[in-house]
Amino acid sequence: MFKKWVLLPYVVLGICLAIGLLIGMAPDLLGDVIPKHGVIGRMLASANQRKIEDSQHTVMVVPDYVRRVVTLGAGTVDLVSVAGEPYIVATDGSPYSSSAVINGRVQPTVESIQSYEPDVVVAPDTTPPGLVASLRAAGIPVFIYTMKDSLKDISLNTKQVAKLFNSTSAESSINSSVMNVKKQVEPHKNDVKPVIVLYNPTHGLYRSGVLRDMIEMIHGIDGAGNLKIIERGKDPNVLSDVWDYRASSPTFNMQENMGTKADLIRINPDVIFVPTRYIDKLPDYKEDLNAVIKDPELQAVTAIKKGYVYPIHEMHIMSYSSWMYFGMQQMSKWLYGDWSYDNFVKYQSVPAN
User: What family is it from (predicted)?
Assistant: First the structure.
């Protein structure tokens, strides 16, 4: 009898340790079930907090285990999903490339967003300041990232957003794509650089500092970089400094900087990438390609004559996330990779003299 009473405290202590361990692991085991639901869930979610700074240097307090995220703006889902898709409980109607299935949809109102009880809202700097201020006044942290027009800033934003989740997967994904591109390009570093453009007959000629960075990383020349955009439209006679469009449009807004078919003809590129719904394997990607390849007005263009016209996934190009690095990797494979597809002429790199 005495021995039982001696062992009892140890048994109770063991049970308490087991319960404590279970509670401590609950957020990882049960994901989105526990946080913010019920008394215990709220205690767990708020027990440990930390400070984090967004791209506008606003410091906010978030839980150690960020489990409920609402995203706003095009491509924001992509920025967040590289750190783990289960974090996103709702988003607005903006497009994204990720395969994440998000059932919740929010309106740009405090009430709608608040109904999902987010730990944090992630949004671009294009979000109305009034909405951001109202959300913060309601006690909801809002992480703002700045959409600057460079590949470097995409990398910085991706890594910074990943800090919300103490994740390094985003950085690993970017580094992997960069390494794969360098591996493809390295044997051709002394070859003549091809003049490259991105053109879709429906949308026009794509132009941005991000694309310029991508094209230069795959050992190419951005053919659309010299086009000058003026208020009344395209100036057919004036070629600006190559950095003019980045200086005049420092933020990422590719859709406002589109060139025309006439610009494409004047550039006469060696390679044309056609942004289309390529990876989705939808039939319209062939229609987009044929609209370029068979266009009577483009038959004198070098890329058309040689057959150097390749599809790339448009959502990767427009994503403003690590998906753009994946798009760049696909571009380098078309140029220098060891694989090709039927009915596509493999690009032949030319050694420099």
Answer: Belongs to the bacterial solute-binding protein 8 family.
